[in-house]
Design brief:
CATH architecture of the largest domain in chain A: 3-Layer(aba) Sandwich
Oligomer: heterodimer
Radius of gyration of chain B: 33 Å
CATH class of the largest domain in chain A: Alpha Beta
Number of helices of chain A: 12
Shape of chain A: globular
Strand order of the largest sheet of chain A: 3-2-1-6-7-8
Helix content of chain A: 40-55%
Distance between the termini of chain B: 6 Å
Number of strands of chain A: 8
CATH topology of the largest domain in chain A: Rossmann fold
Largest interface: A-B, 72 and 63 residues
């Protein structure tokens, strides 16, 4: 009993490290966990997949290595959808000075994956423009809704064909975008309050918003989805897994005469899975088994601690 | 050692140093913590200049010279300098008078300008944030139909409904009547139905969406109960935060107590999500150390 209440904390750390590391070495067939998808994540995915090919999406990437476990999977899911649907995107950050470079690193990693699979890479200028950091995101979003063609007027990007820096408005990504209403969607991948700043200025302005947030933020930011201020939400590692599940299995899509794995009653159409070459089950699913192992360990520790406490109380009472 | 592997190795050393605080406070942890803070501040200052001040202020202020056209690039015209932007420097510097007892009143000028801009936006920000949420909180609590407790999967179509749906989807009235008996069918059911009636899947799905919309106009008993629970939660939690009068009486006390309990339920859900979030961060660090550094780096000959 005494031992139950005084388990060495270093032993617990070691057990936790082992519990989350072992699943990395298991074959992927053992670590794929069938996961039900929530309506909020379904709506985000469906909205992205329904965008016409060639649409421009404005994506605010406000995460750094500190939340890579959740945010990288979210951002990479978006990049895969962008590749598959040939979406163009404007990349910007409004929260952290390191965020623009971290996002570019993610694009480079996925480009390596696309190249290995024989797919075209995401090319700067043609497929996306990176506008860097906006230290005052409130003013930037205000400008996006009031005068889109002035909001990024000072930003240039390198045009490889011309061999020089040119205004981002001349790029194929922004050439035809005259106002925020011409954007296919605005997506934010964030680990901070930059979500509130964006929703406060962009919701109800004629552009659909999708939010990809961390697990800590997910419950309180769900209100934006429930009130219709945003079109969909993916929250935390679970949100990444849900996105990957829909990419791997489709939505309302039946394979081999079986019932669809992902059923979205609010959507009357169907979306087929992404091709295997895009590796739909990626970072999220490879972390998910570890998350389950960690949660099992934590529940076991709570149960053991409580059993020890009850036994101690019983012993004390009998004296 | 390749450059990529060297970068990962530095990252692993920093990760282990920061986790070493779990053992106890130590100099290795302190050193890496200070390096990290220094790098972050330096990086932020550079980013502030490069991404904001240089692009939005300096380049506009000094203008740019014309660039001639080349075989692959169009000409870029010269832009005149907008030297009035230089006046922003003394206004900004007034902020530093806060350190002088005699002149600190001047620091209120830039603060006032910033507050003015910010305050002007807040009216819109408040309504944009809470307006739609208040609107969505107005839920009907009385059912508009008692025909069914739950939202049904069949719908009675009037002749006018049948005509409009038939025109919109191309389905015959007979097919629409058959579909209205169960318009919430699975994908396989839709395929089967489309085959049986020799119509396209899209038209069947279109009719199903129209029927769902028609059924969705009613408030069913189950929805009314759900909305009542929402309303009780909203009002009891709001009552808990009413401090302008003394909360007396059995009803008010019981109601605020209910609000407190419901808040605890909410906090519990948020805490659960937070724990999962924190674990996800640990898992990623372990993946970085165990997979990216050890498996894919050190033991794959990358370091050689």
């Amino acid at each position: 009993m005494e031992k139950l209440l005084n388990i060495n904390r270093y032993l617990m750390y070691m057990l936790l490290a082992l519990a989350v590391s072992i699943p990395f070495f298991l074959p992927s067939s053992c670590t794929i966990i069938p996961t039900l998808t929530k309506a909020s994540t379904q709506d985000l995915y469906i909205n992205l997949m329904q965008l016409p090919e060639g649409s421009t999406v404005l994506i605010e990437s406000d995460w750094t290595v500190s939340t890579r476990g959740e945010s990288a999977g979210q951002f990479e899911a978006f990049l895969k959808i962008a590749r598959f649907r040939n979406l163009k995107f404007v990349l910007l950050s409004g929260g952290d000075a390191q965020a623009p470079q971290v996002a570019l690193n993610s694009i480079a990693r996925l480009n390596g994956q696309f190249k290995a699979a024989g797919l075209p890479e995401l090319k700067p200028w043609d497929d996306y423009v990176a506008l860097g950091l906006f230290t005052d995101p409130a003013s930037m979003w205000q400008s996006v809704t009031t005068n889109f063609r002035q909001a990024f007027a000072s930003k240039t990007a390198f045009d490889p064909a011309a061999g020089q820096q040119r205004s981002v408005y001349e790029s194929p990504v922004l050439k035809n975008i005259k106002s925020n209403k011409d954007l296919g969607m605005v997506v934010i991948v964030t680990a901070s309050a930059s979500l509130d700043i964006m929703v406060q200025r962009m919701s109800g302005k004629g552009t659909k918003i999708g939010q990809m947030v961390t697990g800590v933020m997910a419950p309180e930011s769900l209100i934006y989805y429930n009130s219709g201020q945003v079109a969909g939400q993916s929250g935390g590692l679970r949100g990444v897994v849900e996105m990957e599940t829909m990419m791997a299995r489709g939505v309302n899509y039946s394979a081999d005469g079986k019932e669809p794995f992902v059923k979205a009653p609010q959507f009357s159409g169907k979306i087929p899975p992404l091709p295997e070459s895009l590796k739909p089950l990626d970072r999220g699913m490879s972390y998910f088994a570890s998350l389950h192992a960690a949660l099992v360990l934590m529940i076991a520790a709570v149960v053991l601690g409580n059993v020890g406490l009850l036994m101690q109380k019983k012993k004390g009472g009998s004296k | 050692m390749s450059f990529e592997f060297a970068k990962v190795t530095v990252g692993v050393i920093a990760t282990l140093a920061l986790y070493s605080v779990l053992y106890r406070e130590n100099k290795f942890y302190r050193l890496v913590e200070h390096i990290y803070i220094g790098l972050a501040v330096g990086f932020s200052i550079y980013a502030l200049w490069k991404e904001t001040l240089e692009a939005n202020w300096w380049n506009v202020m000094v203008g740019k010279t014309a660039v001639a056209a080349t075989a692959t690039a169009p000409a870029q015209p010269a832009t005149p300098g907008f030297y009035l932007f230089a006046l922003l420097i003394p206004v900004g510097l007034l902020g530093y008078t806060v350190f002088s007892k005699r002149h600190n009143w001047m620091s209120r000028i830039p603060i006032g300008i910033i507050l003015g801009f910010w305050g002007g936006q807040q009216l819109q920000v408040f309504w944009q944030t809470y307006g739609p949420q208040l609107q969505k909180a107005m839920k009907p609590i009385l059912p508009t139909t008692t025909n069914s407790v739950f939202m049904p999967s069949s719908v009675a179509l009037s002749p006018a409904d049948t005509t409009s749906m038939s025109t919109a989807t191309g389905l015959t009235p007979d097919a629409l009547t058959a579909l209205s008996q169960n318009f919430r069918m699975s994908t396989d059911g839709v395929l089967e139905f489309a085959k049986q009636h020799s119509v396209s899947v899209d038209s069947v799905q279109g009719a199903m969406a129209a029927m769902s919309a028609k059924v969705g106009q009613e408030v069913y008993m189950s929805q009314a109960v759900s909305n009542i629970i929402f309303l009780i939660t909203l009002l009891s939690v709001l009552t808990y935060f009413l401090f302008s009068f003394e909360q007396k009486g059995k009803f008010i006390n019981g109601f605020t107590k209910l609000g407190r309990w419901l808040l605890m339920v909410g906090f519990g859900a948020m805490f659960g999500s937070t724990v999962m979030g924190r674990f996800a961060l640990l898992i990623d660090r372990m993946y970085f150390v165990v997979v990216e550094f050890l498996r894919d780096g050190l033991f794959k000959g990358m370091g050689g």
